From TrEMBL:
Residues 31-160 form the Metallo-beta-lactamase domain. Gene3D superfamilies: Ribonuclease Z/Hydroxyacylglutathione hydrolase-like (3.60.15.10). It holds the Pfam family Lactamase_B_2. InterPro entries: MBL, Metallo-B-lactamas, RibonucZ/Hydroxyglut_hydro. PANTHER family: BLL1145 PROTEIN, CLEAVAGE AND POLYADENYLATION SPECIFICITY FACTOR FAMILY MEMBER. This is Exonuclease.
Length: 318
Protein backbone atom coordinates (compact mmCIF):
# COMPACT_ATOMS: atom_id res chain seq x y z
CA UNK A 1 0.00 0.00 0.00
CA UNK A 2 1.18 3.52 -0.76
CA UNK A 3 1.59 6.10 1.97
CA UNK A 4 -1.49 7.64 3.60
CA UNK A 5 -1.58 11.37 2.85
CA UNK A 6 -2.35 13.29 6.04
CA UNK A 7 -3.75 16.19 4.01
CA UNK A 8 -5.79 14.13 1.54
CA UNK A 9 -8.97 15.67 2.94
CA UNK A 10 -8.79 18.77 5.12
CA UNK A 11 -11.33 21.03 6.82
CA UNK A 12 -11.48 24.71 5.92
CA UNK A 13 -14.03 27.49 6.38
CA UNK A 14 -16.13 26.16 3.48
CA UNK A 15 -16.20 22.41 4.03
CA UNK A 16 -13.94 19.41 3.47
CA UNK A 17 -11.47 19.92 0.62
CA UNK A 18 -9.50 17.38 -1.40
CA UNK A 19 -6.74 19.15 -3.32
CA UNK A 20 -5.72 15.91 -5.05
CA UNK A 21 -9.03 15.88 -6.92
CA UNK A 22 -9.81 19.61 -6.50
CA UNK A 23 -13.28 19.10 -5.01
CA UNK A 24 -15.18 19.66 -1.81
CA UNK A 25 -17.44 17.42 0.23
CA UNK A 26 -20.44 19.04 1.94
CA UNK A 27 -19.31 22.59 1.20
CA UNK A 28 -21.32 25.30 2.96
CA UNK A 29 -20.62 28.02 0.36
CA UNK A 30 -20.57 27.86 -3.46
CA UNK A 31 -17.56 26.07 -4.97
CA UNK A 32 -16.63 24.68 -8.39
CA UNK A 33 -17.15 20.98 -7.52
CA UNK A 34 -19.05 19.74 -4.49
CA UNK A 35 -19.95 16.20 -3.42
CA UNK A 36 -23.06 16.20 -1.21
CA UNK A 37 -23.36 13.29 1.20
CA UNK A 38 -27.04 13.88 2.02
CA UNK A 39 -29.75 16.51 1.95
CA UNK A 40 -29.75 17.82 5.53
CA UNK A 41 -29.11 21.55 5.69
CA UNK A 42 -25.78 21.27 7.51
CA UNK A 43 -24.43 19.22 4.58
CA UNK A 44 -26.37 20.29 1.47
CA UNK A 45 -26.18 23.79 0.00
CA UNK A 46 -27.06 25.23 -3.39
CA UNK A 47 -25.17 27.37 -5.91
CA UNK A 48 -22.19 25.16 -6.77
CA UNK A 49 -21.00 24.99 -10.38
CA UNK A 50 -21.10 21.21 -10.27
CA UNK A 51 -22.82 18.99 -7.67
CA UNK A 52 -22.54 15.24 -7.20
CA UNK A 53 -25.16 13.39 -5.14
CA UNK A 54 -27.77 10.64 -5.28
CA UNK A 55 -31.09 11.15 -7.03
CA UNK A 56 -32.98 11.24 -3.70
CA UNK A 57 -30.62 13.86 -2.28
CA UNK A 58 -31.21 16.07 -5.31
CA UNK A 59 -34.99 15.55 -5.05
CA UNK A 60 -34.99 16.80 -1.46
CA UNK A 61 -32.72 19.70 -2.41
CA UNK A 62 -35.02 20.71 -5.30
CA UNK A 63 -37.90 20.78 -2.84
CA UNK A 64 -35.90 23.14 -0.62
CA UNK A 65 -34.25 25.13 -3.44
CA UNK A 66 -36.87 25.39 -6.25
CA UNK A 67 -34.52 27.50 -8.41
CA UNK A 68 -31.66 25.01 -8.27
CA UNK A 69 -29.90 24.83 -11.66
CA UNK A 70 -30.59 21.34 -12.97
CA UNK A 71 -27.70 21.20 -15.45
CA UNK A 72 -25.25 21.58 -12.56
CA UNK A 73 -26.36 18.24 -11.11
CA UNK A 74 -24.55 14.94 -11.57
CA UNK A 75 -26.64 12.04 -10.27
CA UNK A 76 -24.50 9.29 -8.76
CA UNK A 77 -25.87 5.80 -8.21
CA UNK A 78 -24.74 3.64 -5.32
CA UNK A 79 -21.86 1.35 -6.21
CA UNK A 80 -20.83 3.13 -9.40
CA UNK A 81 -17.42 4.82 -9.62
CA UNK A 82 -16.57 8.20 -11.12
CA UNK A 83 -13.37 10.23 -11.10
CA UNK A 84 -12.45 13.78 -10.22
CA UNK A 85 -8.87 14.35 -11.25
CA UNK A 86 -6.96 11.23 -10.25
CA UNK A 87 -9.30 10.42 -7.36
CA UNK A 88 -11.74 7.55 -7.97
CA UNK A 89 -14.99 7.95 -6.03
CA UNK A 90 -17.74 5.48 -5.13
CA UNK A 91 -20.94 6.09 -3.18
CA UNK A 92 -22.25 3.56 -0.66
CA UNK A 93 -25.46 3.88 1.40
CA UNK A 94 -24.97 5.49 4.81
CA UNK A 95 -28.31 4.41 6.32
CA UNK A 96 -28.88 7.91 7.74
CA UNK A 97 -31.81 9.07 5.58
CA UNK A 98 -33.08 8.20 2.12
CA UNK A 99 -30.29 8.79 -0.42
CA UNK A 100 -27.58 9.42 2.18
CA UNK A 101 -24.14 8.35 0.98
CA UNK A 102 -20.76 7.40 2.29
CA UNK A 103 -18.04 8.65 -0.05
CA UNK A 104 -15.20 6.20 -0.74
CA UNK A 105 -12.22 7.90 -2.38
CA UNK A 106 -9.27 5.98 -3.80
CA UNK A 107 -6.01 7.74 -4.67
CA UNK A 108 -2.67 6.11 -5.41
CA UNK A 109 -3.88 2.80 -4.02
CA UNK A 110 -5.10 4.22 -0.70
CA UNK A 111 -8.81 4.18 0.24
CA UNK A 112 -10.29 7.05 2.25
CA UNK A 113 -13.90 6.63 3.46
CA UNK A 114 -15.94 9.70 4.39
CA UNK A 115 -19.03 8.47 6.22
CA UNK A 116 -21.18 11.59 6.23
CA UNK A 117 -23.86 11.01 8.88
CA UNK A 118 -24.70 7.32 9.25
CA UNK A 119 -26.54 4.79 11.36
CA UNK A 120 -26.62 1.01 11.70
CA UNK A 121 -30.07 0.67 13.27
CA UNK A 122 -32.82 -0.76 11.10
CA UNK A 123 -34.84 1.80 9.12
CA UNK A 124 -37.40 0.64 6.57
CA UNK A 125 -37.57 4.09 4.93
CA UNK A 126 -34.01 4.26 3.57
CA UNK A 127 -31.20 2.16 2.17
CA UNK A 128 -29.39 0.11 4.85
CA UNK A 129 -25.79 1.06 5.56
CA UNK A 130 -23.16 -0.78 3.50
CA UNK A 131 -19.89 -1.82 5.13
CA UNK A 132 -16.73 -1.49 3.05
CA UNK A 133 -13.00 -1.70 3.80
CA UNK A 134 -10.86 1.44 3.85
CA UNK A 135 -7.38 2.48 4.91
CA UNK A 136 -8.58 5.76 6.44
CA UNK A 137 -11.99 6.14 8.04
CA UNK A 138 -13.22 9.75 8.18
CA UNK A 139 -16.11 9.36 10.57
CA UNK A 140 -18.71 11.59 12.17
CA UNK A 141 -18.40 11.35 15.94
CA UNK A 142 -21.66 12.97 17.08
CA UNK A 143 -22.28 10.33 19.75
CA UNK A 144 -18.78 8.79 19.97
CA UNK A 145 -18.99 8.51 23.74
CA UNK A 146 -19.08 5.28 25.80
CA UNK A 147 -21.89 6.78 27.88
CA UNK A 148 -24.22 6.98 24.86
CA UNK A 149 -26.44 4.03 24.03
CA UNK A 150 -29.35 4.30 21.60
CA UNK A 151 -32.16 1.98 22.74
CA UNK A 152 -34.22 -0.22 20.46
CA UNK A 153 -36.46 2.04 18.36
CA UNK A 154 -39.44 -0.31 18.53
CA UNK A 155 -39.42 -0.20 22.33
CA UNK A 156 -39.18 3.59 22.20
CA UNK A 157 -42.14 3.94 19.84
CA UNK A 158 -44.22 1.65 22.05
CA UNK A 159 -43.89 4.29 24.79
CA UNK A 160 -46.58 6.13 22.83
CA UNK A 161 -49.01 3.22 23.09
CA UNK A 162 -52.17 3.43 25.19
CA UNK A 163 -51.72 7.09 26.05
CA UNK A 164 -55.20 8.59 26.59
CA UNK A 165 -54.30 11.73 24.67
CA UNK A 166 -53.21 13.12 21.35
CA UNK A 167 -49.43 13.48 21.10
CA UNK A 168 -47.37 16.31 19.65
CA UNK A 169 -44.12 14.73 18.46
CA UNK A 170 -41.22 17.00 17.59
CA UNK A 171 -38.71 15.77 15.02
CA UNK A 172 -36.62 16.85 12.04
CA UNK A 173 -38.64 17.27 8.86
CA UNK A 174 -36.34 15.22 6.60
CA UNK A 175 -35.58 11.61 7.49
CA UNK A 176 -36.64 11.45 11.13
CA UNK A 177 -40.29 12.37 10.44
CA UNK A 178 -40.63 9.69 7.77
CA UNK A 179 -38.92 7.05 9.90
CA UNK A 180 -41.27 7.85 12.78
CA UNK A 181 -44.30 7.71 10.49
CA UNK A 182 -43.31 4.22 9.29
CA UNK A 183 -42.72 3.02 12.86
CA UNK A 184 -46.06 4.39 14.05
CA UNK A 185 -47.86 2.90 11.03
CA UNK A 186 -46.37 -0.54 11.80
CA UNK A 187 -46.35 -0.65 15.60
CA UNK A 188 -49.24 1.66 16.52
CA UNK A 189 -51.76 1.13 13.70
CA UNK A 190 -54.52 2.52 15.91
CA UNK A 191 -52.79 5.90 15.83
CA UNK A 192 -53.41 8.41 13.05
CA UNK A 193 -50.35 10.35 11.87
CA UNK A 194 -50.79 14.04 11.10
CA UNK A 195 -47.85 15.92 9.60
CA UNK A 196 -46.95 19.59 9.66
CA UNK A 197 -47.11 21.35 6.28
CA UNK A 198 -43.30 21.68 6.21
CA UNK A 199 -43.03 17.89 6.27
CA UNK A 200 -45.84 17.12 3.85
CA UNK A 201 -43.84 17.50 0.60
CA UNK A 202 -40.99 15.42 2.02
CA UNK A 203 -43.39 12.64 2.98
CA UNK A 204 -44.72 12.66 -0.59
CA UNK A 205 -41.17 12.38 -1.96
CA UNK A 206 -40.48 9.45 0.35
CA UNK A 207 -43.59 7.71 -0.99
CA UNK A 208 -42.42 8.35 -4.56
CA UNK A 209 -38.75 7.45 -4.13
CA UNK A 210 -38.50 5.31 -1.01
CA UNK A 211 -38.98 1.77 0.18
CA UNK A 212 -41.97 2.02 2.50
CA UNK A 213 -45.49 3.31 1.85
CA UNK A 214 -46.29 5.89 4.52
CA UNK A 215 -49.82 6.53 5.84
CA UNK A 216 -50.40 10.10 7.00
CA UNK A 217 -52.58 13.17 6.52
CA UNK A 218 -51.79 16.85 6.46
CA UNK A 219 -52.45 18.54 9.79
CA UNK A 220 -55.51 20.65 10.25
CA UNK A 221 -56.72 22.14 13.51
CA UNK A 222 -60.20 20.58 13.28
CA UNK A 223 -58.83 17.03 12.85
CA UNK A 224 -56.62 17.46 15.90
CA UNK A 225 -59.45 18.76 18.10
CA UNK A 226 -62.35 16.58 16.97
CA UNK A 227 -62.96 12.86 17.18
CA UNK A 228 -60.97 10.31 19.13
CA UNK A 229 -57.69 11.15 20.84
CA UNK A 230 -55.68 8.75 18.70
CA UNK A 231 -53.60 11.28 16.78
CA UNK A 232 -49.85 11.86 16.68
CA UNK A 233 -48.97 15.23 15.20
CA UNK A 234 -45.42 15.45 13.82
CA UNK A 235 -43.96 18.96 13.96
CA UNK A 236 -40.49 20.41 13.22
CA UNK A 237 -38.35 21.73 16.10
CA UNK A 238 -39.25 25.42 15.78
CA UNK A 239 -42.96 24.65 15.85
CA UNK A 240 -42.51 22.25 18.74
CA UNK A 241 -40.68 24.91 20.76
CA UNK A 242 -43.30 27.55 19.97
CA UNK A 243 -46.07 25.27 21.27
CA UNK A 244 -44.48 24.78 24.68
CA UNK A 245 -47.78 25.70 26.35
CA UNK A 246 -49.94 23.51 24.10
CA UNK A 247 -52.94 22.07 25.95
CA UNK A 248 -54.65 18.68 25.71
CA UNK A 249 -51.62 17.00 24.14
CA UNK A 250 -48.66 15.04 25.44
CA UNK A 251 -45.30 16.37 24.28
CA UNK A 252 -42.39 14.25 23.05
CA UNK A 253 -39.30 14.96 20.96
CA UNK A 254 -37.51 12.17 19.08
CA UNK A 255 -33.76 12.62 19.49
CA UNK A 256 -30.63 10.96 20.81
CA UNK A 257 -29.79 14.10 22.79
CA UNK A 258 -30.72 13.94 26.47
CA UNK A 259 -31.08 17.74 26.68
CA UNK A 260 -33.94 17.61 24.16
CA UNK A 261 -35.89 15.21 26.39
CA UNK A 262 -36.13 17.56 29.36
CA UNK A 263 -39.51 19.05 30.26
CA UNK A 264 -41.37 16.72 27.87
CA UNK A 265 -44.14 14.36 28.91
CA UNK A 266 -42.54 11.36 27.20
CA UNK A 267 -38.83 10.66 26.65
CA UNK A 268 -38.19 9.31 23.15
CA UNK A 269 -34.59 8.39 22.42
CA UNK A 270 -34.56 7.82 18.68
CA UNK A 271 -31.43 8.88 16.80
CA UNK A 272 -30.32 8.63 13.18
CA UNK A 273 -26.63 8.51 14.14
CA UNK A 274 -24.38 5.72 15.41
CA UNK A 275 -23.93 5.32 19.16
CA UNK A 276 -20.71 4.14 20.83
CA UNK A 277 -21.39 0.43 20.32
CA UNK A 278 -22.29 0.88 16.66
CA UNK A 279 -19.33 3.08 15.83
CA UNK A 280 -16.97 0.44 17.30
CA UNK A 281 -18.71 -2.25 15.25
CA UNK A 282 -18.42 -0.11 12.13
CA UNK A 283 -14.70 0.52 12.72
CA UNK A 284 -14.11 -3.21 13.16
CA UNK A 285 -15.75 -3.93 9.79
CA UNK A 286 -14.04 -1.10 7.90
CA UNK A 287 -10.71 -2.19 9.44
CA UNK A 288 -8.91 1.14 8.91
CA UNK A 289 -5.29 1.95 9.67
CA UNK A 290 -6.21 5.48 10.70
CA UNK A 291 -9.38 7.21 11.93
CA UNK A 292 -10.01 10.92 11.32
CA UNK A 293 -12.92 12.36 13.28
CA UNK A 294 -15.34 15.10 12.26
CA UNK A 295 -18.69 16.46 13.56
CA UNK A 296 -18.11 15.85 17.25
CA UNK A 297 -15.49 14.87 19.77
CA UNK A 298 -13.03 12.09 18.98
CA UNK A 299 -11.28 12.00 22.35
CA UNK A 300 -13.02 8.83 23.54
CA UNK A 301 -12.16 7.00 20.32
CA UNK A 302 -8.55 8.17 20.65
CA UNK A 303 -8.39 6.83 24.20
CA UNK A 304 -10.11 3.55 23.26
CA UNK A 305 -7.68 2.81 20.40
CA UNK A 306 -4.55 4.19 22.08
CA UNK A 307 -1.57 2.10 21.01
CA UNK A 308 -3.63 0.22 18.39
CA UNK A 309 -4.77 2.79 15.84
CA UNK A 310 -4.01 6.38 14.92
CA UNK A 311 -7.09 8.42 15.83
CA UNK A 312 -7.12 12.19 15.33
CA UNK A 313 -9.30 15.07 14.29
CA UNK A 314 -9.24 15.84 10.59
CA UNK A 315 -6.54 18.40 9.80
CA UNK A 316 -7.46 22.03 9.27
CA UNK A 317 -6.28 23.69 6.06
CA UNK A 318 -3.29 25.96 6.58
Amino acid sequence: MNEILDDFLVRDDIGYYCRYGNFYIDAMHPVAKNIISHAHGDHATNGHQKMYATAATFAFMKNKFPKMVVNSLEVITFGSTFSLGDVHITFFPAGHILGSAQVLMEYQGVKYLYTGDYKLQEDATCEPVVLSKADVLITESTFANPAVFHPDVKKEILKLKDKPSNIMLGCYALGKAQRLTALINDLLPEREVLVHHKMYAVHKLYNELGYKALRYTLYNRKAMKDGSTNKIYLVPPLTFNSYFKAKNVLRAFASGWERLQKQNDIELYISDHVDWKDILYFIDKVHPKQIWTIHGDGKYLKKHFDGKLIVRDILSAT
